[in-house]
Amino acid sequence: MSEHGLSNERLIWMLTQMTRIREFEERVKGTFEAHPGVIRGHTHLADGAEASIVGALAALRPDDQLLATYRCHGYPIALGTDTKAMMAEIYGRKDGLCGGYGGSMHLADVSRGFLGTSGIVGQGIPHATGAGYAAQIRHKGQVVLSFFGDGAAKQGAFHESLNIASLWKLPVVYVMENNNYNVVTRVEQEDANAAAGEPLAVKAKGYSMPGVTVDGGDPVAVYEVVSEAVERARSGGGPTLVESLVYRLSAHGNIIAPPGVPLHYPEHEAITVFGDKEEYEAALRGDPVPRFRARLVTDGVVSSEQADAIAEAARAEMEAAVEFGLASPFPAAEEAVKYVYA
Amino acid sequence: MAHELPYIAAIGEAIAEEMARDESVLYFGQNIATHEDDPFLKQFGADRVRVTPISETAEIGMAVGTAIAGYRPVVELYMAEFMLVAMDQVVNEANRFHYMSKGQVKVPLVLKAGYGFTCGWAGQHTGTIYSMFMGVPGLKVVVPSTAADAKGLMTTAIRDDNPVCYFHHYLLTLEHGEVPDGEYAIPFGKADVRRAGGDVTVVAIGWCVDRALNAAEQLAASGIEAEVIDPRTLAPLDMDTILKSVAKTGRLVVVDQSTRHGSAAAVIAAEVASEGFGSLKAPVKLVTALDATVPYSAPMEEYLLPNETKVVEAVQQVLGNAPVAA
Amino acid sequence: MPTEEELGLLRAMWRIRVFEERVGALTRTNEVHGLVHLSVGQEGVAVGVCGALRDDDAVYGNHRAHGHAIAKGAPLASVMAELMGREGGLCRGMGGSMHLVDVAHGFLGATGVVGGNVPLALGSALALSLQGGDQVAVVFFGDGAVQSGIFVESVNLATLWKLPVILVCENNGFAEFTPRSAHTNVERVSDVVSPYGIERETVDGNDVVAVRTTFERFLAKARAGGGPFLLECLTHRLRGHYEGDPQHYRQALADEEWQQLDPILRLQRRLGVEGEKLEAEARAEVDAAERAARESPFPPPSLTAELVYAR
Known about the structure:
By secondary structure, chain A is an alpha/beta fold. Helices cover 44% and strands 11% of the residues of chain A. Chain A has 13 helices and 8 strands. The longest helix of chain A is centred in the first third of the chain and has 27 residues, at 8-34. Chain C is α/β, with parallel strands linked by helices. Chain C has one domain: Thiamin diphosphate (ThDP)-binding fold, Pyr/PP domains (Rossmann fold, 3-Layer(aba) Sandwich). Chain C is globular, with a radius of gyration of 19 Å. In chain C, 59% of the residues are buried. The A-B interface holds A 65, 67, 98-102, 106, 108-110, 115-116, 118, 120, 123, 125-138, 156-157, 160-161, 163-164, 167-168, 339-342 and B 26, 47-48, 50, 52-53, 55, 57-71, 73, 88-89, 92-93, 97-108, 137-138, 140, 161-162.
């Protein structure tokens, strides 16, 4: 494994973060069954994307920054954000990461470089581009990662941002997590490149920017590709478009419905909309978390017992996060009119 | 000490002075800084002053990201209508971040955009749409009507830690005025009583302030003294000054170049009806643009807009000197 | 001997040339007021494209659309009257220079916000394809519009749905007051759309025959069910972005340079034709249009209330 320059320690770190993200997301999903009514509104899980998230973040320096979408739980977990505060935020509690103001879609941990999210598809891409501009003129060699999905690549915001980033040689790496779905639509139904059987990374050609596709289920492969892009950005070479192929293992989100209707997670759209059980089951078989664990055990990087211990620690951590969230009080109602203006 | 400047130059002066005072202020947008002789580019360099493509979504979105990352961008948008192309970034992104993060981030940015250019610029370039941005939590809206106010309000806009829509009226572009030398900041939420009077309160916005002042001169000839108030900022809106005036005069006319239900006038009238009802001796009259897209042809364009005659008529109506039109 | 078709191209370009120069003069006396963008120098594109179309094809122009409208068949007098804000104008004075519409000739309109017309053309193309005929939609835009998000959203959708739309880019190297290099580091518009694999070509937009030939090739395919297409026409905007633009941002072309570029002079040289007679004919037409426009009254103010909603 040493050709990518990752030490065993680093590989074990990757497995740990992937495991923690999976466990956290399972807990969020489980809350709908175990504690109905606690999570309101809409949540979107990163299960299936752990390898891509962790592989990408492993390429960063502590002073680098990132912005993401409403499917944002994975990034702060890997960055070390307190998972208790995260769960409390998703439960709308006072001790939440954002005091209950943001919720699942709007996590932020500025001290760790996670500048925030947008809930509107594609609109965070210009935000990250602006943060990239700031990083450029700060002249400290910082890089910004912009995370978004395949659906966002059809938004005008994507086109405008990549054009400017390329023209100004901004230190941004655009990471498109292509999970083949935009809610209930398959990518080839809405994307001309996908319809032609092409990878979406080809869109980079229109901006004179390198575009590369990577197996988002392999954290080491993602690390290699993103590292290269980060180095290019850091050395003033400008932006890159990285298309990371992932498969989300949950539905787009929990059910959206007015109160009274239970908000659990339905089955994946592959099954409910397209009747393609085999696609989903193949994805389950290729689940990146157990796959990476197996690879590390096989390669002798980690023992079975150590891997079990990592999983157990994650379970305990996320159990504690749920307990903390449930016990955290709600903010006082009148807090609603604070923080409107700085 | 003061010096005479046209309105548009007063705005530029404020931007330049703030950029000199604070290295974190940036200035970007279409058609600026395109040659090395550009004064902003020469003074502040290519890091801080940049030309962008025609990409309003990215321009405004990048301003949000740059602001979150610690800078203070001023975006040159030219026309309020061009903000419509990127409406999400203005009313659903820039204004939300501070709140949704419980104050972890601030979004200090200024969106500079002209409006109201009724000079044959036709339907898509002549709107007065500032009221679309009122009542948007987290967003501030500024509408200077004089060169001095243009400078003072831009200074405050740049220093404000929130997103500010700075709307400058195109018909006022070359209006000269005395502008204070050096540092000059006008606080938001402070209306300006431009003319004192005891018979009727006339609140007017932007280009309509001069219409109101001219109408006041005409009315004075018949012995009617109008108090003319320029709110200067629409969010925050200084209702205290307006209510105090209405308590004195008992009558209110509001003059606004927007269309009736899309006007700041409607908001002001509602506030007075709600908070100052006891002071009113007559219904509130709104003098706004008629409800149509601004047409190209000159006589039709004029027909649509507020003018001195309409203001005088409205004043006579609230004074009971003329029948209130149905 | 020049063919009738070739003479027709020349006549059409002269009409636009003389008309635009006349409008320029009228803005200085304010008989044409407001914001006006003239297309002097770009006549080859308007004529090369619009002359090949039918009245039932749908064409959208941008803010620099007088040439598009005229080439598509809008009567000169009606366009002039519109620019003078008169009742006899194409839009009875409601729209002005940037909002010319002539439905009878398939000119669905000029629009004033950069890029805003591109999805409109997609809509027309969709409607036309659903109706089952062989009509097509065409949209004109400049190189500046290509960096707008709305452009690529439209390219993706047009490609995905295989719409019968021909995107015609008048690449004159400037977007308002800035050169293309300030907008993107991709020089050719046809390269910006290269990821989408749509059929595209870049031509010398000041060679009206080249424009016509290439456009007709795309047109035939579009009528047969193909689409979308992109035709990038490299051209030159001789005057400022708008009338009154002091043009500090670029050097004026030397006369000799312009003579080499001018689409009218080039075709005349190629055909061995002198221009005076054609220019004089165009001038007579424009004179008549100006007179007729001036005689048309201003519209009644009540029109502003009548047209807000369709009844």
